[in-house]
Amino acid sequence: MSGAAIRVAFQDHLSISGRKLLSRGRKGTAVSAASFLLDRKIILDRELLRDASELRRILIHELFHFVWRRIGNNRRAEWDHLLSEEQIAGAKGDLGWSAEWRRNELRAADLETKSVRWREFACETFCDTAAWFYSTRPHPEHTLQLRFRKPRRQWFRRLQGLAPLPL
Ligand SMILES: [Zn+2]
């Protein structure tokens, strides 16, 4: 599927229930978007069309799920290393709620064993950091302490140097 187009669609009132994405569902957790990596498809909540800045933030986050899948093990290991140092240094908050709530759920063993929970956290921080890196304004979900933002920015500058990024 390399190089195949990524399709973007809008649907009303998205939520996730179990592992399923629902539109206008009566249950589940409300979400703004979901990506289907193998189908190369992004579904966005139609509400986002009313807020250009939020649409940009969410769409960049979703696009970077595709980048994460293709940047290779070395880069993912580098990112993991950066996060491990942060975590050991006691970082709190993050650069998006998706990463932050996962950080809040982490236990020491997750870092040591690189559990599924840790790997999902790593992926979501990558996507939230991308959305922050390309943002033009502050957002209430940018809660990571300032001292931890600098290494993330430097890392993303290096990544950007590799452009075009693999999607
Ligand atoms: Zn995500």
Give a brief rundown of this model.
The chain is an alpha+beta fold and 167 residues long.
Q: Helix and strand layout, with pairings?
A:
Blueprint: E1 7-11, E2 14-17, E3 20-23, E4 29-30, E5 33-36, E6 41-45, H1 52-70, H2 73-88, H3 97-105, H4 108-113, H5 116-133, H6 146-160
Parallel strand pairs: 1-6
Antiparallel strand pairs: 2-3, 2-4, 5-6
The structure holds zinc ion.
The site of zinc ion (ZN) has 5 residues, from helix 1 and helix 5.
* Low-pLDDT runs: none
Mean pLDDT: 95
How would you classify the helix and strand content by structural class?
Answer: alpha+beta
- The residue fraction in helices comes out at 40-55%
Instruction: Label the overall shape.
Output: globular
So how many helices?
6
Q: Rg, please?
A: 16 Å
Question: Structurally, how many domains make up the residues?
Answer: 2
Distance between the termini: 11 Å
Name the bound molecules.
zinc ion
Q: Largest beta sheet: what is the strand line-up?
A: 1-6-5
Number of strands: 6
Strand count, sense and barrel status of the largest sheet are: 3 strands, mixed
Order of helices and strands: EEEEEEHHHHHH
Q: What portion of the residues fall into strands of 2 or more residues?
A: 5-15%
